[in-house]
Amino acid sequence: MNLTLLALDTSTEACSVALLHRGETLWADEQAQRSHTKRILPMIDKILADAGLHLKQVDALVFGRGPGSFTGVRVGAGIAQGLALGADLPVIPVSNLTAMAQAAYEIHGANKVIGAIDARMEEVYCCYLSGQKVRSEFGEFMQWQPLIEEQVCSPQRLIEQLKAMPQTEACWRVGTGWSAYPQLAEADLARSSDIILPSARYMLPLAQPEWYAKRLLNAVEIEPVYLRNQVTWKKLPGR
């Protein structure tokens, strides 16, 4: 099947776009800090133009649903919702922590990954994932299962949970949390990697099995994932 997916992510300091078309992947990653809203749409326009496509020729829109910065997650969800409404596209949400695990697999061959994103306020967004290859008629994909569910907690609490798990020394670590809170790295519970921020490029292989399984959302069903309960979200159509 000639699947075309457009992915975007603004949930962290990175501003990222990727396109799967005719089996080839195009992508662009920038450090945007507080300029996501200015950068993401021009990046989308350029990557579509480079592929000779219009938005309505895309089969589905993929977006980083969080966790990440409150503003960045809101921006990404809002942009995805607006584009999906305008072009009548289905949407596939992807975890930013899982996207970094996928990057660790593709770069390092990792099948166990501990993700930790700096959540400020002396906390991290984190999880511990185990992956295995799954074959289907549509290809071979990594399927990730949580050994520690996505959560927000203190670095010390994450260390305690990891120490209760077997063989974390075979894991790779990803995300900004390890450098933001040195006690995490000093606990020496996983192998170091240079995967600091999520990229839309690694959301595409996670979205493909969702497409084939028809696990799709429409625009009004989009829900960002903050992990902190005190943040509210209002969908564009007023729901």
UniProtKB/TrEMBL annotation:
<comment type="similarity">
    <text>Belongs to the KAE1 / TsaD family. TsaB subfamily.</text>
</comment>
<dbReference type="InterPro" id="IPR043129">
    <property type="entry name" value="ATPase_NBD"/>
</dbReference>
<keyword id="KW-0963">Cytoplasm</keyword>
<dbReference type="InterPro" id="IPR022496">
    <property type="entry name" value="T6A_TsaB"/>
</dbReference>
<dbReference type="GO" id="GO:0002949">
    <property type="term" value="P:tRNA threonylcarbamoyladenosine modification"/>
</dbReference>
<dbReference type="GO" id="GO:0005829">
    <property type="term" value="C:cytosol"/>
</dbReference>
<feature type="domain" description="Gcp-like">
    <location>
        <begin position="30"/>
        <end position="192"/>
    </location>
</feature>
<dbReference type="Pfam" id="PF00814">
    <property type="entry name" value="TsaD"/>
</dbReference>
<protein>
    <recommendedName>
        <fullName>tRNA threonylcarbamoyladenosine biosynthesis protein TsaB</fullName>
    </recommendedName>
</protein>
<keyword id="KW-0819">tRNA processing</keyword>
<dbReference type="InterPro" id="IPR000905">
    <property type="entry name" value="Gcp-like_dom"/>
</dbReference>
